[in-house]
Amino acid sequence: MLGVGTLIVVMAVMNGFRVEMLKQMSGISGQLGVQGSRDGLDVTPDLLGRIRQVPGVVSATQSAEGQVMAVVGNRVRGVILRGMLPGDFQARVPLAAAIDGPPGVRERYRGLCRSDDDKPFDWGTLKGFGEDFSVAIGRRLADLLGLKVGDRLQLVSPVSVATPLGVMPRSVSARVSAVFCAGMYDYDANFVYAPLVDVQRLLGLGNKVTGIEVFVDDGASVADSRRLVSQAVGFQGWVFDWFQANVSFFSAVQAQTNVMFLVLTLIVLVAAFNIVSSLVMLVRTKTADIAILRTMGASRGAILRVFLIDGLVIGGSGTIIGNTTNYVYLFIFSSWYSRN
To answer: Which of 201, 226, 242 delimits the end of a domain?
Structure first.
């Protein structure tokens, strides 16, 4: 019972962790992505329409992304600047929930980035997102650079521009209008979101974008959706899924899950060997009783069935009780987790 229960609980926790991380990542960047050439992807209404008509596709949004330097006083940090339409950014729950989310959801996401002190923190608003090169930054990045809502930071792009003084990198002064909390350190410490047109201008993309983020329905197959989206895109871009975008992370999680399953299975095997050893000792202590049964006419098969049934009852009862107890426990825990 203990071996089966431990196996179920640990595997459920590991798989739940994997699913939650997948939901967070796919909720920010989508389950599928369309990437263009080095010069960018020319997104037309016809292309977006073909992608959105694919069965299982919920939405398809364009974005421009590039690496820039964020400079605040004497603090410098490399960040990923991602440009999106204001409406698309507000629709991303993991990004916008901590800023302008509904009560309950807002507090939950803000709690994921709780700091050591209890000082009130201004998360800003998305009403001004899209004006005067306003940006939304992660809570961890705000702590690292000492920024708060209303402050300005310098974004320096590696894309150069010709000036009377020579070739200079593009740079712009951006205003922090909001602070988000996705609950994942990589996003909260390294991503800066800005309006799409401003990012296109800073990165020198013109009217092009770097990719299209495709969101797929939870009940749809990502592999089938990827194949259909590839057919819709054709030779205009390359389609990849969430696993290819985060292959190192999910490979490590999968390897850890497999190792945990192997280790915990050994606990069940040890319990099975204990049952076998108990039956062997029981046979040794019941030698006289077995001899009496044989004298009375019991066959070898009948006596063997007695001990087989004994072992099956012990092992089966433990398995059933272990399954039932832990499924009830997991149901109660998942209900509590959903409410909180």
So the answer is: 242
Question: Would you state the torsion angle of the CA atoms of residues 178, 184, 188, 193, taken in this order, to the nearest 10 degrees?
Answer: -60
pTM score above 0.85 = no
Measured torsion, CA atoms of residues 51, 53, 56, 62, in degrees rounded to the nearest 10? 30
Among 184, 208, 242, the domain boundary falls at 242
Enter the DSSP assignment of 72.
E
Q: Which residues contact 53 (CB under 8 A, 6 or more apart)?
A: 232
| Residue whose C-alpha is closest to residue 130's, from 92, 174, 188 | 174
What is the helix (H) or strand (E) element at residue 59, kind and residue range? strand 57-72
Q: Are residues 154 and 79 in the same domain?
A: yes
How far is 99 from 107, CA to CA, in rounded Å?
10
Encode pLDDT of 199-237 as tens digits.
888 888 888 898 888 888 877 788 888 888 888 888 888
Sign of the Cα torsion 110, 195, 60, 69 reads: negative
